[in-house]
Structures are given as structure tokens and as C-alpha cells.
């Protein structure tokens, strides 16, 4: 092969392969960066849920102590809340933790209904403040859960959609799980039963 033939072949190879690199490399970089941003957004959103769960975790002992002094006959509910609170820890996987947090939300809802039944408790200014704080915290937790689920849907769409699913497969990213309500929480509450 002569030098001129080799030069022609090299020029043709560069002309043919160079556009591929200028198209493929930016697409790969864009896909990678988009997936990383979405993964980080899911983790950030989960930390928002975690912050609210920690706030609730810290607030529950105060609520329980205040209410226990007034309502000794509702001690089983407080015992359940305290026992569940001790089960929730950082060592649990996401699905187990979400399940326990959903159960905690349900018990705290029962606590609110119980407090509604006793006007003497409601008239206590401290108790009303704690009840408002608890309701506000549950609203913030609900908003954090929605933000987390929005981040998860964006991430999961990228992990499962073409062409970003190729990069996600390469990075071994798997779809994240949503924070979902349990079957009990989806059913219509029987308010009459709660007042018994």
C-alpha cells in the first residue's frame, strides 16, 4: 500500500467516523448527566421525606407525654405509637420503612380523633398547640412524599425510556419505588367506628 492510498483511507475513515463521535459523544454525555441529575433529585426528595419523618419522630414523644397525663385510659394507643416509633430506624430498607411510616400516620390519625372526643383536652392550650403542630407536620410530610413521588416518576421515565434506558442499563440504575398508601389508608374511614 502506498502512502497516498493510506492517506486517502485515513481521510475517509476520519470523515466517516468523526461525525459519529460528534453526535454520539454529546448524546452519551447528555444522557448520563440527565440520569445523574434525576437520581440526585430522587435522593434529595427522599431526604426531604426523611427530614419530615425525623421531625415527626422527635415530636411524637412530646405529644404522647402531654396527652398521657390527661388520658390514661387511652394508653394502648400510646403504647402502639411508642412501640412503632422504636421500630423505625435507619437500617430498614425503603419499602419496610414506608410501611412502618404509613402505619405511624394511621395511628397518629387515631390519636387526633381521640383528642377530638375529649373537649377538656382540646381546651388545654398546650394540647391545642401540639395538635396543630402535628397536623401541620403531617401536611408537610404529605407534601414531601408528593415531591418524592414526582422525582421518582421523572427518574423512572428516564430509566425506562429510549435512548436514556441504554445509559441507565450501563449504569445499572433500576426504577425506584413510590411512597404508596396501604390498603387500609385507601379505604373510606368509618368515622362512627373511630368514636367508639
From TrEMBL:
UniProt KW Transmembrane helix keyword: yes
Localization, UniProt: Membrane
Record-linked Pfam families: LemA
UniProt keyword terms in alphabetical order: Membrane, Transmembrane, Transmembrane helix
InterPro entries, per database record: LemA-like_dom_sf, MamQ_LemA
Annotated TM spans: 6-30
Main subcellular localisation: membrane
Highest taxon above the source species: Bacteria
Record's bilayer topology term: Single-pass membrane protein
GO CC, alphabetical: membrane
UniProt similarity note: Belongs to the LemA family.
Name used for this protein in its record: LemA protein
Organism of origin: Dokdonia pacifica
Organism ancestry: Bacteria, Pseudomonadati, Bacteroidota, Flavobacteriia, Flavobacteriales
Amino acid at each position: 500500500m502506498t502512502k497516498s492510498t493510506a492517506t486517502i483511507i485515513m481521510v475517509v475513515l476520519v470523515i466517516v467516523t468523526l461525525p459519529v463521535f460528534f453526535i454520539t459523544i454529546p448524546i452519551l454525555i447528555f444522557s448520563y448527566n440527565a440520569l445523574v441529575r434525576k437520581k440526585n433529585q430522587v435522593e434529595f426528595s427522599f431526604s426531604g421525606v426523611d427530614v419530615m419523618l425525623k421531625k415527626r419522630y422527635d415530636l411524637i414523644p412530646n405529644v404522647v407525654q402531654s396527652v398521657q397525663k390527661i388520658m390514661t385510659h387511652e394508653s394502648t394507643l400510646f403504647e402502639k405509637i411508642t412501640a412503632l416509633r422504636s421500630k423505625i430506624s435507619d437500617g430498614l430498607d425503603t419499602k419496610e420503612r414506608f410501611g412502618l411510616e404509613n402505619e405511624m400516620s394511621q395511628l397518629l390519625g387515631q390519636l387526633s380523633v381521640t383528642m377530638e372526643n375529649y373537649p377538656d383536652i382540646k381546651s388545654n392550650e398546650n394540647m391545642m398547640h401540639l395538635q396543630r403542630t402535628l397536623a401541620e407536620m403531617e401536611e408537610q410530610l404529605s407534601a414531601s412524599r408528593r415531591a418524592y413521588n414526582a422525582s421518582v416518576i421523572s427518574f423512572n421515565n428516564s430509566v425506562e425510556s429510549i435512548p436514556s434506558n441504554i445509559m441507565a442499563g450501563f449504569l445499572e440504575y433500576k426504577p425506584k419505588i413510590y411512597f404508596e398508601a396501604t390498603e387500609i389508608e385507601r379505604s373510606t374511614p368509618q368515622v362512627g367506628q373511630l368514636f367508639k
